[in-house]
Write a structure and sequence with these properties.
Blueprint: E1 15-20, E2 25-29, H1 42-52, E3 58-64, H2 75-85, E4 90-93, E5 96-99, H3 100-103, H4 110-116
Parallel strand pairs: 3-4
Antiparallel strand pairs: 1-2, 1-3, 4-5
Bound molecules: tetrahydrodeoxyuridine.
Tetrahydrodeoxyuridine (THU) binds at residues 7, 10, 12, 14, 30, 32, 39, 41-43, 63, 71, 73-74, 77.
């Protein structure tokens, strides 16, 4: 996916790939925009691919830069991914896979809305 990245502003192509608990492969790449803040991270594309392929729960994820080394998902993407993987999602880091709960402890998630909404 890295080679499909559209990143003329950062020149930092990113590719993301994940497998769901059902064995479905989903991928994404970053897609930037002349309005810089609107750029989409590779993980955004991956989550869209997940929806397009029928949804499911992410089991393992790797995000890589052009040197082939893992990239730690940015803060926004951690929140985005949490919804579709939760604490058991394994995320590849430079020192090996770690559970998502370690990367995003005390996360806010859908259960907070159901448990604490006023209606
Ligand atoms: N980027 C990602 O695609 N995922 C990340 O988790 C970190 C950053 C992209 C966003 C931008 O297009 C480029 O990398 C430089 O920040």
């Amino acid at each position: 996916m890295l080679e499909l990245a559209y990143c003329p502003y950062s020149n930092f192509p990113v590719g993301a790939a994940a497998i769901t608990t059902q064995g479905v492969l989903v991928t994404g790449c970053n897609v930037e925009n002349a309005s810089y803040g609107l750029g989409l991270c590779a993980e955004c594309g991956l989550v869209s691919d997940l929806a397009r392929k029928g949804g499911g729960t992410l089991a393992a994820l790797v995000v890589v830069a052009s040197d082939g080394e893992p990239v730690a998902p940015c803060g926004r993407c951690r929140q985005l991914l949490w919804e579709h993987g939760g604490q058991t999602l394994q995320i590849m880091t430079k020192s090996g896979p770690i559970a998502f709960a370690t990367l995003l402890p005390d996360a806010f998630g859908p259960e907070d809305l159901t448990a604490r909404s006023t209606s």
